[in-house]
Structure formats: C-alpha cells, structure tokens
Amino acid sequence: xxxxxxxxxxxxxxxxxxxxxALSLVTAGVLALAGVVSLAGPAEAVGTLGNAAxxxxxxxxxxxxxHHLGEAQYASTLDAQFDSVTPENxxxxxxxxxxxxxxxxxxxxxxxxxxxxxxxxxxxxxxxWHSQLPGWVGGLGTADLRTAMNNHITQVMTHYKGxxxxxxxxxxxxQDGSSGARRSSPFQDKLGNGFxxxxxxxxxxxxxxxxxxxxxxxxxxxxxxxxxxxxMVKDFKQRGVPIDCVGFQSHFNSNSPxxxxxxxxxxxxxxxxxDVQITExxxxxxxxxQAASYSSVVNACLAVTRCTGITVWGVTDxxxxxxxxxxxxxxxxxxxxxxxxxxxxxxxxxxxxxxGSCTATYTQTATWNGGFNxxxxxxxxxxxxxxxxxxxxxxSPQKVSATWNGSPTWDTSGNVMTVKPSGxxxxxxxxxxxxxxxxxxxxxxxxxxxxSCTAS
Length: 456
Ligand code: G2I
What we know:
five-stranded antiparallel β-sheet, eight-stranded parallel β-barrel, alpha/beta, disordered N terminus, 13 helices, binds ligand G2I
C-alpha cells in the first residue's frame, strides 16, 4: 500500500526535467490550490449482476459457449456474475440434429447441466430458425418438412423438459426494412404464414412449463418490423395461440443505437399480455458512451414490469461474435469495463453479494502549464476487500502520460483507463491506498471523471 506524497512529485521519473524543476518551486502554492473532489457519481456499486438483478425481480444472463467452459477465468466470471445462461450455438438445429432423426445433445447438455447445478436459469435458443439449419431440412417437401419441424421441436423440448425457463421457439422470422413481411425460409416458403403458430402449438404440447418466446432483432424500437411482430403477437393472444414472451435481441452499435423509444416499445408488447426479455444484448463501443448505452437498456427493462430479464451475448469481448467492436461487459482479460459498472449501478447494486465495498476519491495534487497530476484514493468499506478497480476518463485531447501505483488498461478510444492494483490489492476494512497519474492537458484542463470503485 503506497500513499502518494505530494513531496515526491519532483522525484518522479515520469515528468520532464523542466517540469520537475518548475514543480519543486511551486509545490507549496500548488498544494494550497489543489482541489479535493469527493466523487458525486452514482452510489458505489457492489455485488454481482445476478444478485443485483434478482433484487429487482429479474435475471441477468449471458450467452455461453461449451468449448470455453474449461477456461478458468471464463468459468469463474460466469459463475460469479450471472444467474442465467443461453447456449450461444449448441442448441441450434445444425448442432443438435445435423442428420435427420439423429440427435446429439452433448454440448448443449454440458451447458444445461452445469448451469442447473449452480442454480442458474437456462434460455433455450432456438428451435425454428432459417440460419444454422442443416441442408437436409431445406430439401424436404412440404408434408415432410412439417413433420420434421414438429419432430425437432418435440424431441428437443422433451429432452430438456423441466430444465428450460424460456424457449426461443421461433427466431428471426421477419424481414428487415419497411415491408413488415416474413423472411424467406424453408418454413415460410413451404408451410406458409401458419408455421409460427404451428411451432408454438407444438411446443406448448411438449413442455407446458417452459415460457415460449418469439425472438428477433431490429425490433427494439417501433418500426415496420416490430409493428409486424406486434401484430402477430396481438393476433396470437386474441386467438389463444400459446405465446408467453417476446425476445428483443438488442444488438446495438453506432449505426443501430439504442432506440429512443426502446422502453415504450417494450411496454407496448408487455401490454399485449406477454413477458418481454432482452435476449442478446451487446453494444459496440467503449468507455463512458458504451456505459451510458448499457445503462439506458437496463433502465428501460427496469421500467417495464413485465421485462423479466436481460441476457448479454457473451461473457468477454474476446469471444464475442463481433469481438472487434468490444461490445460486452468484460474485456478480453476479464476486467470489468465501465459498462459493467454502469449496468451494476443501474441495477442498484446489491449488499448481499459477499464482496466488500470501496470508494474512490479524486484529488488534483499538482498542476503546471500543460499538465497536472491526479491522485485517486481507494478506501475499503466496512469489510476487507481482495482487490479493486476504478475507471478514470479524461477528455480528448487530454492524454495520460504516466501512472504509478496502479495498473491501467485502456479502452480503444484511449480516453478511459481502468486501473487495478499493480500488486496485491488487498485492503483491510477501512484501509486506503492510492494511485496517481499525469495528464497532459493539450489545452483542455477538465477534471478527469473518476468512476465508482468496484471491490472484489
Ligand atoms: O449473429 C448474432 C446472433 C443473432 N441472433 C441469433 C443468434 O443465434 C446469433 O448468434 C450468433 C453466434 O453468436 C455466432 O457464434 O450466431 C452465429 C451464426 O449465425 C454464430 O456464428 C457461428 C459461425 O458463423 C460459425 O462459423 C461457427 O461454426 O458460430 C459457429 C460456432 O462457433
């Protein structure tokens, strides 16, 4: 544990000699002027995503891939943070029935059994989808295809009967764009519009205990596609076709940001008498803007009583289906990102998580023409913590030129560093430590934004 002493500034190797000389002359004055800023940000976030969501009556899940479960950090992050899983590919038609009537459940079973042994929910994804569909399905004639579709639903749902919270019975059956039309697929083209209803009726007959969802993307705000899905769900509810939930995939990026009417759109579906779920959430970006988008999604779900849970589409950026967009809550080294803090904070944190708490307090310790030094003091709450992270955001064109007593990782914008201890991060109850950094202002003297301290 090292406290940064202002007296040590002139000895720091990171500063140019002229700066060190200037600092040694003005240190006393600087100290008099230095501002101490206690963080006025959101309440400190403690606990885990699953615990915090549970306290709000929701689940917080992630897509998982069976072939990553043997990686220790993947498994420990999954187990520590999430209380629901969705097999990312293992329950798709090509994974389970690549040859007609020959069912292979091994990878999906691995995920389902593991999750259930840890008390996690499982979302089933997905029974009827045009993609990841083995070639033999498309080659069938109409009657045979109908038999094959119903048989696939029946076999798979029977195998998992009683183990699945919600099934994505039909996935992505509508076209993008303004037509509001159905997407071409073997099911649509040969069985016609009635295939969705038939799939849901078959599914209900197999496992009456599972919630049956229709799941799609680009339906997150009100648009022609979501209007078409809305009309279908309304019709199903009026005619008694069994549907319990609608999944909103919520794959967002700068071309497809969180819609401003996201909450209203979730609400209008809920008002039809179905649950709504955010099923494949990921938001490309980094730092505070990504964090803000995640926060808005969580807030939208919390504002809709029938929004029963949120699933992010992967544990870590490094295994995301669009990894280069760094769309998830943990970076490639399993560090919590600002987006993680934002989600946990939006969920209200949790005092029951078992990990302690910490606070981060910013002090400007020195300033000179063209730069300043900042110091962040981390203080453990009423119980000991084994480690901590604190995000610090500077404003472009500012640049952090040096850090000490902390280990930073940078987001792609270069404006956000997430700092963790450079050595052992243990702090006894009420104990503190500090890290420091130098900012070259490049003309902008804004105070860095120091986010909430996350204890672990
Ligand atoms: O595309 C993102 C998602 C859109 N909604 C439905 C989801 O099921 C879909 O998930 C993605 C998976 O994240 C990818 O991992 O679905 C893709 C396939 O459409 C998955 O990609 C596939 C690759 O295309 C295959 O080459 C690969 O063999 O993953 C397979 C298994 O790793």
